[in-house]
Amino acid sequence: MPATTDGRNMTDDDFTVTAGWGRFGVGQAVMPGAGRAVERAYTAAERSGSPLGATTFDIHLNDHAYWRNVPAAVWDYKLGGYQVLKKWLSYRERPVLDRPLLPAEVQHFAETARRIAAILLLVTAK
Questions:
Q1: Strand locations in the chain (E)
Q2: pLDDT by residue (tens digit) across 55-68?
Q3: Nearest to 53 by CA among 36, 31, 70
Q4: What span, in angstroms and rounded, lies between the C-alpha atoms of 16 and 121?
Q5: Per-residue model confidence as pLDDT tens digits over 33-59
Q6: Which of 4, 21, 23, 37 is deepest in the core (most CB within 10 A)?
Q7: Where does residue 118 rank: exposed (0-12), middle (13-18), buried (19+ CB within 10 A)?
Q8: CA distance linking residue 28 with residue 58, whole number of Å
């Protein structure tokens, strides 16, 4: 769920990714950065009893905007050896993308996280 630190709707600079997820390396290759992923306990309203990890993450775009409640198993999900959501973010850092995210791209991240959760739930249901 997209959110802001002061509870308002995202606007303007909130869509700019500056949390350190990616940068250009040698030969203009995009290199991943540490970014800002804040691990925390689920709130009572967020906890659904699902097997997606004992904790959840808030994944920051910048100092003011973030995606709230990305379950640990979803955030840690790897495909081809890469952490999927972190890799996506590395290509959207402001110096790499050279523009803020579009609202549809912010929504795409949330939808991708939900799809990963659905895959993980299918696997654990067996």
A1: 2-4, 22-24, 30-32, 37-41, 55-60, 65-71, 78-79, 82-83
A2: 999 999 999 999 99
A3: 70
A4: 32
A5: 999 999 999 998 887 766 898 999 999
A6: 21
A7: exposed
A8: 29
